[in-house]
């Protein structure tokens, strides 16, 4: 009897520790999408008929969602993409699931689910791509996370944390018109 009470107490304490750890954690949903420039407008085609190609060419658009505790005040503090620090802004997402057109030739109405339905809050993180911060920002990438493609620094309930994703999930290309 005494042993079963001790086992019960140990199990409860271990379970409480796991819940406390999850309470301030976030889950990342990182996506990358190629953005391919569309056709050159007719007035931009030179008289000789040769089409000019853009020097910039294909660009990447990052779609980063974070699932955070519902009753928390999430504050984004830092973001690194492939080891480069970027400025970023975050916006709350109104409802889940979050979907996006999949640009499927067979089924044009098909949607890709980016974030599943959840009871937690979801935040969209927008990095300001093309303008990495080169100056000393006071933030440094944690050593153990240098091999991750995405690292997000944040504060929840006064506790600082980092979340990482090894790879971005590729989405089908978005062809601009």
Mean pLDDT over all positions: 76
- The shape is globular
- C-alpha termini separation: 73 Å
Strand runs, count: 10
Question: How many helices?
Answer: 1
State the share of residues found in helices, binned by percent.
Answer: 10-25%
**Which ranges are low-confidence, i.e. pLDDT below 50, for 5 or more consecutive residues?**
4-21, 47-55
Q: Helices and strands, in N-to-C order?
A: HEEEEEEEEEE
Query: How much of the residues is beta strand, in percent?
Result: 35-45%
What is the C-alpha radius of gyration, as a whole number of Å? Answer: 22 Å
For this entry, give a set of tags.
two-stranded antiparallel sheet, eight-stranded mixed beta sheet, mainly beta, 12% helix, globular, 177 residues
Provide an overview of this structure.
The chain is mainly beta. The protein has one domain. The chain contains 1 helix and 10 strands; from the N terminus they run H-E-E-E-E-E-E-E-E-E-E. It has one helix spanning 2-23; strands at 27-36, 59-68, 75-81, 84-92, 98-101, 111-115, 121-132, 150-156, 159-165, 169-175. The strands form 2 sheets. Strands 9-8-3-4-7-2-1-10 form an 8-stranded mixed β-sheet, with no helix packed on it. The longest helix is centred in the N-terminal third of the chain and has 22 residues, at 2-23. The chain starts with a helix and ends with a strand. Residues 4-21 and 47-55 have low confidence and may be disordered.
């Amino acid at each position: 009897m005494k042993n079963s009470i001790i086992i019960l107490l140990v199990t409860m304490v271990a379970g409480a520790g796991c819940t406390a750890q999850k309470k301030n954690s976030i889950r990342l949903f990182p996506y990358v999408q190629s953005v391919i420039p569309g056709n050159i407008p007719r007035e931009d085609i030179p008289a000789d008929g040769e089409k000019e190609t853009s020097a910039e060419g294909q660009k990447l658009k990052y779609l980063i969602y974070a699932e955070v505790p519902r009753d928390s005040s999430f504050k984004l503090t830092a973001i690194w993409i492939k080891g480069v620090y970027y400025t970023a802004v975050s916006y709350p997402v109104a409802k889940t699931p979050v979907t996006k057109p999949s640009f499927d030739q067979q089924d044009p109405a098909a949607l890709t689910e980016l974030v599943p339905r959840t009871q937690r809050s979801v935040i969209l993180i927008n990095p300001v791509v093309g303008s990495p911060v080169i100056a000393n920002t006071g933030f440094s990438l944690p050593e153990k996370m240098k091999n991750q493609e995405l690292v997000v620094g944040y504060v929840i309930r006064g506790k600082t944390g980092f979340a990482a994703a090894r790879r971005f999930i590729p989405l089908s290309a978005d062809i601009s018109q």
